[in-house]
Amino acid sequence: MSGTAGRDMMRAAMRAPYLERDEERALAVRWKENRDQEALNRITTAHMRLVIAMAAKFRNFGLPMNDLIQEGHVGLLEAAARFEPEREVRFSTYATWWIRASIQDYILRNWSIVRGGTSSAQKALFFNLRRLRARLSRSGEMARDTVYRSIASALGVHEKDVAVMDARLSGADTSLSAPFAEDDSGSASRQDFLVDDAPLQDEVVEFAIDDERRSAWLRGAMTVLTERESRIIKARRLTDDGATLESLGEALGISKERVRQIENRALEKLRHALTTANPEMASQLRM
User: Fold this and answer.
1) Whole-model pTM?
2) Are 196 and 156 in contact (CB under 8 A)?
């Protein structure tokens, strides 16, 4: 959202009239039962003040205010979609939770490259650590361990989690393109020391060619099987979730022992066909 668009939205929100309880409920009913777009627009426009006020509470996290408002608006629309007017609860009361949750999720996704955690306890720690630490510091000089212990007790988390989160919030993100050492005048950067466990490009191509070749060999060998043998091999060996002997027996109208016998005979026929046409496969077959 551009700065101009954001300012226009805030001005429109401030000009929007408040809704009385009965009018608000009538609009909510129109939206829920008839999907009346005008009713939805009036409800959301009247509550954009709430979105702006909620976004302002999170402006200290360093993210653009316009983006916070936009995310809050997403939460407002989610609240409108889920609101049940028959419960006789004011829409603002219901929407507050959705607006806050949407803004907080946005902050957690974008505040830092190092994620702050996604559990409810970690979210509470992320958004309350600074406030609680400031409150404790005003009450007098306290050791860091004592501060961490008090915060952990208040939020129901481990002291170690408090220390880790405090380090994340206090430290700045480091670019992978930055020099490995502050006085490093060479070209080495942090990303040069990252290990990539993925196979090299020539290995990827080699694996793809080998897989394609083996698949072609197998398709050719499958032609020596009868229709029933082919069906059993495909169901038992060529699917992610291999069928059981019992389920195949029921489908074919034979016993599971008979299915086993047919499968073993089909595997022997495949081995013979594959090794006859491609002797180099003899050491690779594990059927």
Assistant:
1) 0.47
2) no
